[in-house]
Amino acid sequence: MLDVQKIVIEHFVQELRDAYQQTYNLLEAEYGNICAWTGRLALENIANSDALYHNVEHTVLVTMVGQSILKGKQLLEGGVTPKDWMLYTIALLCHDIGYVKGICRADSGERMATGRNGETVSLPPAGTDAALQPYHVDRSKLFVRERFANSALTEGDVNTICDYIEMTRFPIPDNEFHRNTAGFRGLARAADFIGQLGDPKYLRKIPALFYEFEETGANAIFGYKAPGDLREGYDEFYWKVVSGKIQEALRYLRVTTEGKLWIANLHSHVFDSEHNKRLL
């Protein structure tokens, strides 16, 4: 039987190895191996999820754009160390793993860890993994702390990874930590935004995202009544929420060929959304 998911994971793990080697050759090669190992660990777990949108492909896309951002930063400015690359990559690979039921030690049956002070929460029996949306960032950080506590990474390394994951929280909290758009923390959030909104197939995936929102009640909060409402609001969301948070990342993406493709996809969706409104 053809296992498409396995093919995707195998290919992407090799991509992680190649991207590290192209940037650093044999320097600190163990960091490249850790990236590849984490890629397999994360994607094999995410492949078990039944969330409609936050799946293996989403994590792959976010990590790919993140690697393009780091390549551009290294080419333009330098100063991206092998450890910087590894910690940033691990954060992107694990940023949404909190959606997956059963990945935290306290998960048991229908009770799942929230990632907050040892608390657990009971989920609806008929719900999908999307029901963990309110807790997924904290669960992702908990997963990292549990899996990397006794590894080659230091406690400081693990804290750094968790800081990067925290930056992907949405809606964005209004505090000094989350207002930061510079440095690797800001670039982690930018990768999450661009990997989603710059996905060539994003506009066709909107129904999946809509029904994830529906499960958590987010549609009522945002005022979405149908998938088309998300599609129609793409350009406004981009200009009001996303644009100001990704400018540094766009500067680095302009340096590489693959980075320019991400920008082209992003701007194409904005144009499409604005153009369709003019036709109404």
What does this structure look like?
Helix content is 65%, strand content 2%. It is mainly α and 280 residues long. It has a single domain, classed as 3'5'-cyclic nucleotide phosphodiesterase, catalytic domain (Catalytic domain of cyclic nucleotide phosphodiesterase 4b2b, Orthogonal Bundle), CATH 1.10.1300.10. Strand 1 and strand 2 form a beta hairpin. Helix 3 crosses helix 13. The mean pLDDT is 96.
Structural class: mainly alpha
CATH architecture: Orthogonal Bundle
Rg, Å, rounded: 18 Å
Distance between the termini: 47 Å
Widest β-sheet, arrangement of strands = 1-2
Order of helices and strands: HHHHEEHHHHHHHHHH
Write the CATH fold name: Catalytic domain of cyclic nucleotide phosphodiesterase 4b2b
Record field, number of beta strands:
2
Q: Kindly report the average pLDDT value.
A: 96
Low-confidence stretches: none
Residue share in β-strands: under 5%
Q: What does the overall shape look like?
A: globular
Annotated CATH homologous superfamily:
3'5'-cyclic nucleotide phosphodiesterase, catalytic domain
Q: Quickly count the helices.
A: 14
Q: Gist?
A:
By secondary structure, the protein is mainly α.
